[in-house]
Amino acid sequence: MKITHIFNGIEETRSTINQKYPVAEINFLVVASFICGYSNWHAIARFCEANIDWLRNFFPYTNGLPTRHNIARIIRLIKPKLLNELLINWTRSYQSESMKNQL
Predict the structure, then answer these.
(1) pLDDT class for 102, splitting at 50, 70, 90?
(2) Considering the chain, what is the average pLDDT of its residues?
(3) Which InterPro entries does the record match to this protein (predicted)?
(4) 74-88 per-residue burial string, b: 16 or more CB within 10 A, e: under 16
């Protein structure tokens, strides 16, 4: 399972008029930024601006990139427990595939 697929499991809680930036896109750019060592909203925004072409390999970012304020606001709406469970399930899916390949 691709990591991008896990972000589709996160429920959108914003009203439709506030959905300029899809929650899956925001989650992906934050997780990608964290993996690359960026851990504050300013750094995440700079990472995204410098890597927009790479990010678009995974999601379209049709409306461009959100500001650091929008990123932070959207991330605060996500239930950490759900994101944690999705990431754990994603890593377990790779463990399962690895075990099958060893047999």
Answers:
(1) low
(2) 81
(3) Transposase_11-like (IPR051698), YbfD_N (IPR032806)
(4) bbeebeeeebeebee
Query: For the whole model, what pTM was predicted?
Result: 0.73
φ/ψ of 33, rounded to 5, equals: -65, -45
- DSSP state string for 73-86: HHHHTS-HHHHHHH
- Tell me the backbone φ, ψ of residue 38, rounded to 5 degrees: -95, 125
Which residue range is the domain that position 55 belongs to? Answer: 3-102
Domain count of the fold of the chain: 1
Residue with the bigger pLDDT between 89 and 45: it is: 45
- Smallest CA-to-CA distance from 7 within 32, 30, 19, 25 is with 25
Say which amino acid occupies 70: N
